[in-house]
């Protein structure tokens, strides 16, 4: 299992881990009650292994961290946002196949 | 891996039932899935009408049980998206998004359907910012807020009821003057104080800058236009089948649902279709699994009589 490569971010360390990152970051906003979020969890794990060293793959639990999702106007999950140099460069809503996420990440690399 | 005898495309309830029956018939089966098992079951919270669960069951739990059951007698599984398929001399060839290609004797299409869009201005721009097609995913963001549900079928009414757990008020906007949903759901919805039906009405646009602020409505009977302030809108106006990757030879109805006979066979020999992507009168988990079993039986019959 590659899930140890996924970084779990919180409201407290979001700035340091995501916005100040020197490499592109994908953040998957999720919650335990969301079926499609569980469905894409293995995809997120696989991405974390494959992009190791090139991009950070993060997850944020929206139940435990209300402030950051609010800041980015998130009203649907799963939502995946790609950040580069502290800015939003791409956003995907809903459970999508791996190819769509790869495309978004590769644009930011 | 040797060529499979059967490829099942999609692992919602129809595909998983086909996998279960095919594996028990000792057909060498490959189950292909684009994201992860469950299909549209992942979009709902609770299932109250699947036989054998008299107290109802969490949709996700049912997905896990079905997945385990489908695998029990041995199948191959793969993650991948089919971009095209074609009849060739020695069977059917599938092309995948990653460039791989698979040759097989029979294919069961179980690709399901996706929620239809309203096709109203603002809808696409505000998807994920107040426009939603999944109440179980996004409902909790609307605690003590006002939302609208568009639609009048089982899904619309069921999800409107689910949303009353969070929202202060749920408008149920329907283009007719009565609901299409099954009687029990109608009774529940129309006696729920948080739900207010808005009859004979269509959504002309979804309005808002970075979040949904209101809906522009048109009453089809009076011709009256109005603006309804809401924080979110949940759209359940029917299904669009995932069948656009199929060749023209696979006959479909005008909405794209695949036409089959009672064996689930399509117009192309060796290609079958099951579940929500098929033209049929009732799209439920319980009808999907029946389709899956029938199709696997048909394939077994086909392979042994060839």
Helix-strand blueprint:
The complex is a heterodimer of chains A (109) and B (306).
Chain A: E1 7-8, H1 14-19, E2 25-30, H2 35-50, E3 56-61, H3 67-71, E4 79-84, E5 87-93, H4 98-108
Parallel strand pairs in A: 1-3, 2-3
Antiparallel strand pairs in A: 2-4, 4-5
Chain B: E1 6-9, H1 13-24, E2 29-33, E3 46-47, E4 57-58, H2 59-71, E5 76-79, E6 82-88, E7 91-96, E8 101-104, E9 106-109, E10 113-115, E11 131-132, H3 135-138, E12 146-150, H4 154-163, E13 169-173, H5 183-190, E14 195-198, E15 201-207, E16 214-219, E17 225-229, E18 232-235, E19 239-241, E20 271-273, H6 285-305
Parallel strand pairs in B: 1-2, 1-9, 2-5, 9-20, 11-18, 12-13, 12-18, 13-14
Antiparallel strand pairs in B: 3-4, 6-7, 7-8, 10-19, 15-16, 16-17
Helix pairs in contact in B: 1-2, 1-6, 4-5
Could you walk me through the main structural features you see in this protein, from its secondary elements to its overall organization?
The complex is a heterodimer of chains A (109) and B (306). Chain A is α/β, with parallel strands linked by helices and 109 residues long. Chain A has a single domain, classed as 3-Layer(aba) Sandwich (Glutaredoxin). Chain A has 4 helices and 5 strands. A 5-stranded mixed β-sheet of chain A has the order 1-3-2-4-5, with helices on one face. The longest helix of chain A is centred in the middle third of the chain and has 16 residues. Chain A is globular and about 30 Å long. Chain A starts with 6 loop residues before the first strand and ends with a helix. Chain B is α/β, with parallel strands linked by helices. Chain B folds into 2 domains: 175 residues, 3-Layer(bba) Sandwich (FAD/NAD(P)-binding domain); 105 residues, FAD/NAD(P)-binding domain, CATH 3.50.50.60. Chain B is 22% helix and 28% strand. Chain B has 6 helices and 20 strands. In chain B, the strands form 6 sheets. Chain B has a 5-stranded parallel β-sheet with strand order 5-2-1-9-20, covered by helices on one side. A 5-stranded parallel β-sheet of chain B has the order 11-18-12-13-14, with helices on one face. The model of chain B has no long low-confidence stretch (mean pLDDT 96). The chains are: A alpha/beta (109), B alpha/beta (306). At the A-B interface, α2 of A face α2 and α3 of B.
């Amino acid at each position: 299992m590659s899930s140890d490569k996924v970084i779990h971010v919180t409201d407290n360390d979001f700035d340091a881990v995501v916005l100040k990152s020197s490499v592109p970051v994908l953040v998957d906003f999720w919650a335990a009650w969301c079926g499609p979020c569980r469905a894409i969890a293995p995809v997120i794990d696989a991405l974390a292994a494959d992009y190791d060293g090139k991009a950070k793959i993060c997850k944020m639990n929206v139940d435990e961290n209300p402030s950051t999702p609010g800041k980015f106007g998130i009203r649907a999950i799963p939502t995946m946002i790609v950040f580069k140099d502290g800015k939003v460069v791409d956003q995907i809503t809903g459970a999508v196949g791996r190819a769509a996420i790869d495309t978004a990440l590769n644009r930011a690399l | 891996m040797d060529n499979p005898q059967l490829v099942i495309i999609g692992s919602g309830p129809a595909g998983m039932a086909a996998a279960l029956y095919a594996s028990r018939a000792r057909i060498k089966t490959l189950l292909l899935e684009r994201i992860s098992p469950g299909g549209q079951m992942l979009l709902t919270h609770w299932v109250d009408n699947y036989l054998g669960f008299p107290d109802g069951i969490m949709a996700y739990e049912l997905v896990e049980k079905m997945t385990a059951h489908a695998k029990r007698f041995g199948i191959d599984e793969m993650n991948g998206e089919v971009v095209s398929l074609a009849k060739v001399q020695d069977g059917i060839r599938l092309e995948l998004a990653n460039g791989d290609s698979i040759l097989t004797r029979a294919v069961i299409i179980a690709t399901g359907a996706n929620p239809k869009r309203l096709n109203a201005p603002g809808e696409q721009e505000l998807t994920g910012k107040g426009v939603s097609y999944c109440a179980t995913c996004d409902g909790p963001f609307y605690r003590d807020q006002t939302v609208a549900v568009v639609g009048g079928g089982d899904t619309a009414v069921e999800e409107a009821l689910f949303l009353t757990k969070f929202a202060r008020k749920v408008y149920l906007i329907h283009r007719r003057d009565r609901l299409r949903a099954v009687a029990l759901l109608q009774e529940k919805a129309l006696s729920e104080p948080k739900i207010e039906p808005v009859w004979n009405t269509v959504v002309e646009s979804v309005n808002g800058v970075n979040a949904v602020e209101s809906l522009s409505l048109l009453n089809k009977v009076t011709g009256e236009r109005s603006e309804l302030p809401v924080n979110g809108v949940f759209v359940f106006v029917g299904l669009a089948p995932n069948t656009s990757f199929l060749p023209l030879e696979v006959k479909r109805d005008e909405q794209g649902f695949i036409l089959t006979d009672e064996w689930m066979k399509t117009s192309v020999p060796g290609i079958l279709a099951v579940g929500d992507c098929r033209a049929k009168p009732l799209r439920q988990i319980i009808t999907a699994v029946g389709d899956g079993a029938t199709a696997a039986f048909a394939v077994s019959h086909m392979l042994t009589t060839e």
